Amino acid sequence: MAKVVTYEELKAHSTKDNLYVLIHGEVYDVTKFIDEHPGGDDVILAEAGKDATQAFEDVGHSDEARDLLPPLLVGSFEKDGALKISDTKAPGSGASVSDAVEQGSNLMYFIPLTLLGAYFAWRFYGA
Fold first, then answer.
1. CA 66, CA 54: separation in Å to the nearest integer?
2. What is the per-residue pLDDT for 119?
3. Could you tell me the end-to-end alpha-carbon distance of the chain, in angstroms, rounded to an integer?
4. 19, 68, 103, 126: which sits with the fewest CB atoms below 10 Å from its CB?
5. How many helical (H) and strand (E) elements, i.e. helices and strands, does the chain have?
């Protein structure tokens, strides 16, 4: 049976030498990883003792970063505790605004470059 981490436990593990992070209702021990974090330790420490799901998703972590989480899992966060966890969905669990933005960002580059290429082709071959 998976361990259930309480809010008090989460708050107790909020220092650089002993750090738990709550993401998507799961608690991870990131103590050994904090010095390797590309964003620096201050970014993770700022989310200590609270739900870090929104901050984690806002950054747009890569699949490789997400693959680092399972070995760090401590357990699930208590469902009816003092801290209410966010409803932010994990990637792949449904459509989200960030998915739409990521798909749209490809078009932001493709369309202008296509138009630019068409213009140069017209100037080179047509005129």
1. 14
2. 92
3. 74
4. 126
5. 5, 5
